[in-house]
Amino acid sequence: MPLRKTICWVLLVLLGIAPYAAQADEDAARAILTEAILASSNDQVALVEELAATGETEIVTNYLEAWKRGDIYIFDPESKRIPIYVPEDEDAPALRSAIVVETGEVLVNELGEPVTVDPENLDQARPARKARKLFSRLTDLVGLNSANPDVRAESALKLGLKQNQDYLRDLLALKETEKDPAVLEALEEGIAVSHLAHGSREELMAAIATLEKMNSLAGLSALGNLKAELDEGQTELEFNADERAALDKTIESINSYLAKIDFIGTCFRGLSLGAVLVIVALGLAITFGLMGVINMAHGEMIAVGAYSAFLSQQFFASIIDSSKLALETYFLFAIPFSFVTAALAGLILERSVIQFLYKRPLESLLATWGISLILQQGFRLVFGAANRQVNSPSWLLGNIEILDITFGYNRIFVIFFAVIIVVGTWLLMTRTPLGLSIRAVMQDPEMASAMGIRIDRTRMITFAFGSGLAGLAGVFLSQIGSVGSNLGQSYIVDSFMVVVVGGVGNILGTVLSALGIGVTDQALQPALGPVMGRITVLVIIIIFLQWKPGGLFPSRSRSLD
Amino acid sequence: MKFSEDQRRLIGIALTAGVMFLLPALNVTMTPESFLHVSDFQLNLWGKYLCYAALAISLNMLWGYTGLLCLGQSLFFALGGYALGMHLMLMIGEEGAYKSELPDFMVFMGYTELPSHWVPFYSIWVAVAAVILVPGILALVFGFLAFRARIKGVYFAIITQALTYAACLLFFRNEFTFGGNNGFTDFKTVLGHDVFDPGTQRGLYLLTAMYVTSCMLFNWWLLRTKFGRIQQAIRDSENRVRFSGYSTTSYKLFIFVVSGIMAGIVGALYIPQVGIINPEEMRPSKSLEIVVWVAVGGRATIVGPVIGAVFVNWLKSYTTYHYPDYWLIILGALFVFVVLFMPNGIVGLPAQLRELWKKNQHRFKSMPKDEPASA
To answer: Hey, are the CB atoms on B159 and A500 less than 8 Å from each other?
Structure first.
């Protein structure tokens, strides 16, 4: 209990501090804004510029826009002039609540009750003409003043892409004072793009060289425009052959860079799809590949795992007061919980039906299909026909960008997760006494039995383990889509294909074929679209099996069938 | 009086055919008030069941007698249905919702003229040829590839399932010019007769019943031939047959193509009776259902598939109507029960019970015998 409390506190503190620091800056910006709205028209220009200098992007963009549009009013009870924000909304009733500009909260009276106002009866605050002229420029430039280097870098690049001469001056000015290397890089890129349109000849050539050096994807379209203008003679510039060659070379080099990162991105997406397939198919590789049972209810074991994730989410939400904390932590519980529930379901299935069918694999297909129908309808009766939403913890959302390639956290996580599962399964199979008896029973049950291995129990554990792996797949699938009763159905055909292509009874084969199918699928998708891509993959698999009927790693044995 | 195995099969066929042809007779001769009357609606429903029965026979030829579990039977069925459906769509003419010569879904998707592969389907003969040839050629090509690579058992099941799944995804595409997920529907006439007319439906029912009967007779005849013997030998031990010098590949390929064509023809009989065909019909789960019909009725028997298909589908209609929430559970439990406790299906049930009786009869008979001895 103390440990859990400590963890809770640490999490709460971490989640709590950051917003407070930002709050202070925001309050300062709001105060200046309020002052500006109430100021005389002569002072407004200075105040608005001061406001922009705070770099509070959100406040500046939203409120200056609203002020210009005329959505800012002066609320004036007993001459205590309070600027308020009443959003324009044709459907809203005449009397509605308003937001106080200074605090950002709903307007209330002395007793703390919300006050509704009718904008028709209020004084509209109009910015002075001189100040208004500045607005669009200030909203564009505010990002450059932000305290957050990411915002500064982003807006520097965005301004550069506008290829506006005035902004170019601002960018050059910022370059003199900026210290942050990431922002400097963005500035350089932005300035180079602007130079393409407004620079002198030397600046222009330097810009082209810079963009080539930086492999600037953002500058690609500006370079393309420049080239088109030159081709059509729309510009006064005349390039000599060398300069022309430099431009062409730059465009080509950026394009090949683009192709390279596209390729890496495709590989990464393929790898993550392959990892999903590995997780889904690994359980099947054990029940079908090793045990020879065609478990059509494998998909429902996946659904059991996914619904377990849903249940643990609901459970955490009900016992932990902070909904945020519940969302962040339930997932860690869901992983083992889903494994256990799916393994239990598999255990029951094995004891009740499958143990009688080891000698009749084709009939195990029918019986387990019957089970799968029962379970699907069971899910619908218990959880309702509509899909259930399982929310992802924030550490699985978001993404990280390395060298212009976006890596989603959930994709990275699934690859990581798959590696752990595969290594764990491999260790279990090759390094433990249980694994040894599992392999012995799979190779020759009678001989294993004669050696004193309890084959009944071994089969039971193996099947439960395979089902548990399906449950783990379910937890992950719950993160990339909603959970429904036929969740598993959409994966069952694919997982059987993965196992067959990999070579039945071979875990390494399953992993390789899952990754191969995943990467092929992702590589075909951009050209053919998702559905045709899948169809092509299926056809490729059918043809592949012509060439290697036993899969990638066929099992070798002296027996005939 | 003892009958040979062969004669007993023939009697089974005759009985089944008798029941099939009795239904339309009851439909025509009995007055609606009568207990024995079969309404037009019911006759139509039975026509559908008989289509399923023929489909089950075609699968039984593969799974029951050759040991090839094919999960692509619904694909051949749907292809046959689509082939005739193209003709029926064109026969709607300008009576469709959009009053255009083009089928409604094409107007809807913005076609201005008929795609060229549709044009020949104005002729019924082209459509009939396609019903036979399309599934036949697909089975020939796919079977040739699969059997040559010696894909068998579970792998054959999975690879046929993959084929079906790929085709299903393809037919769901609107660009594939077969109506996307809506498929074909709204037919008005078949061979110039109104499809909604009870007379037309009765005719279609009779056609289906005759088709089922001839399928059973073909099956019966095949079992008497040398081909039938080899077919069953392949099921029991393919390697021995191969070592005895038979090319099992050609035998399997032949039966695969025949079965594909049989399924295709069923599709063509099915679609005017049901009035719709869409890619749902070729979902992999539909193929599994066919396997279940055969298993429930009795694998490797002639009338078993018919009984199984009719029974399961009747049960499905009954339970979906009376227990909409539980019918999947009832069906699923039935499959599990049949697989676990009735390996020979409904047809094998009497023999199974006789066996049970023989095994346990001493328990029933020994009681009266023992009593006088002790007295």
So the answer is: yes
